[in-house]
From TrEMBL:
Keywords: Carbohydrate metabolism, NADP. The keyword NADP applies. InterPro entries: Epimerase_deHydtase, NAD(P)-bd_dom_sf. This is NAD-dependent dehydratase.
Amino acid sequence: MNRILLTGASGGLGTLLRKEIAPHCNTLRLTNRHDMGEAADNEEIVLCDLADADAVMDLTRDVDMVIHMGGVGRENTFEAILQSNYVGFYNLYEGCRKNGVKRVVWGSSNHAIGFYPRTQRIDASVTPRPDSNYGISKVYGEAMAQYYWDKFGVESVSIRIGSCFPKPADRRMLTTWLSYPDFVHLTECCLAAPRVEHTIVYGVSDNDSQLWDNHMAAHLGYRPKDNAEIYREEVEAKTEPYDRDDLTIAAHGGGFAAAGHFED
């Protein structure tokens, strides 16, 4: 590709992708509201608030595909999430539509389906059951992605990211863990697949314990290699078992489902 736009470039996952995605394009355009350091040889750096529609229109010009990792990345007040995950997301898709961007690959979340019980393994066809203000914003994002495919032909992959960390930190993550290498591989698959329309895929590694079924995203070619099971002994030695009725383990969304309303 000639140019890929990466939003949220100074965040945790954005920083990871910045290094790994650069070889896939002639120019990697990076954006965030915060400092992103010095540009490498094939990088462009643009400070931008996605809530600024005019700035986003300029940001998406001459772009082939977008990897969107920007926005509020955890639970917060509705007002805080509104500007980034609603207004900013709309501005991004409008910029992509008007500037002819082919595809958006973006970080949705397991919190879009966080109130499903652990006893139920689900695929991408289920009705959303968000567990938080944050989760609701991801349902909105997935609906936006579907709308822009159906009406305007802008392709999207919505990655319902599980728990993306160097290694699982607690017992829940033995099921939801997405390793860094698997996340990079999944992102590369989302860019390279010949046709995605609007695809929802669960961002999870090849763990022995599974909540999510990715058969509806098989066309992406995602084949995770890592397995949280190798960390089970370490994790269980340093954490206490959950009570079976504790939503932290009983619901897909974990602590987001167990927490009260953020603004109370």
